[in-house]
Specification:
Structural class: alpha/beta
Bound molecules: uracil
CATH class: Alpha Beta
CATH superfamily: Uracil-DNA glycosylase-like domain
Number of domains: 1
Number of strands: 6
Helix content: 40-55%
Shape: globular
Number of helices: 11
Strand order of the largest sheet: 1-3-2-4-6-5
CATH topology: Uracil-DNA Glycosylase, subunit E
Distance between the termini: 66 Å
């Protein structure tokens, strides 16, 4: 048995920063299975019903929000998504309430969770530079995420978490009524366009998002800045997506 402090430091170095269950699980024991994590799991149908109820609750609440600040308060008070309880902040959208360009990412990361604003970490700095390169500023846009809470350890959000939080995003789109929406990465594009296509297929194309009032807003998907930081050779494609946005905004 090694020094527990050294083991914890090793976990931190490996990016494991969150504890996801109340009690430890020995995965080396043969009889251990996932049902023992955090005690007995409720039947899937019970979980599904709980998500359905949380989704309906979020959708009904949203319809009562006439302004972004009312909606922000609702999201801050909403308890139907368990991500809220592991996050430090509720990261609501930031920017101009009549923005022409609305930008949607996946979920807050560690920096956003600490500061309480979307895209303020390394990917946010790259996003700011890209926005400025097409003659806009962060303040002139409206920047938000599919999820207002950071998933522990930045894991990919589950379909349930996305569907419960989706009404809050849809209401932000309805209230802002942007001229165009930029979807950053597959999670945001799949959630808003309700499909399962890869980002390589989706990026660079205009696809209409249908609002509840029957009107449509064009969207364009592009690579997530976090991916561009890992794969800088793809920046040229992202740049061409941003130029399409600039061209669209100068023509409408
Ligand atoms: N990645 C996202 O998708 N959103 C943020 O706000 C930060 C990083």
């Amino acid at each position: 048995m090694g020094d527990p402090i050294e083991i914890l430091k090793w976990y931190m170095t490996a990016g494991i920063e969150e504890i996801c269950a109340d009690s430890p699980v020995n995965f080396l024991q043969k009889e251990t299975n996932m049902s023992s994590v955090g005690g007995e799991r409720p039947a899937t149908s019970v979980l599904a019903q709980a998500s359905q109820a949380a989704y309906s609750n979020a959708r009904d609440l949203c319809l009562q929000a006439e302004t972004l600040s009312e909606l922000r308060k609702m999201v801050e008070n909403f308890e139907g998504c368990s991500l809220k309880f592991s996050a430090n902040s509720t990261v609501f959208g930031y920017g101009h309430e009549h923005a022409q360009l609305m930008i949607i990412g996946e979920a807050p990361g560690a920096d956003e969770d600490r500061i309480g604003q979307p895209f303020v970490g390394r990917s946010g700095h790259l996003l700011d530079k890209m926005i400025e390169a097409i003659g806009l500023t962060r303040e002139a846009c409206y920047i938000t995420n599919v999820l207002p809470w950071r998933p522990p350890g930045n894991r990919t959000p589950t379909d349930g978490e996305v569907s419960v939080c989706l009404p809050f995003l849809q209401r932000q789109i309805n209230l802002i009524k942007p001229k165009i929406i930029l979807l950053l990465g597959a999670s945001a594009a799949n959630a808003v366009l309700n499909n399962g296509e890869s980002i390589s297929k989706l990026r660079g194309h205009f696809t209409d998002y249908q609002m509840s009032d029957g009107s449509a807003v064009p969207t364009i998907a592009s690579f997530h800045p976090a991916y561009l930081l890992r794969a800088p050779a793809q920046k040229a494609k992202a740049w061409s997506d941003f130029l399409r946005i600039k061209k669209y905004l100068t023509e409408v």
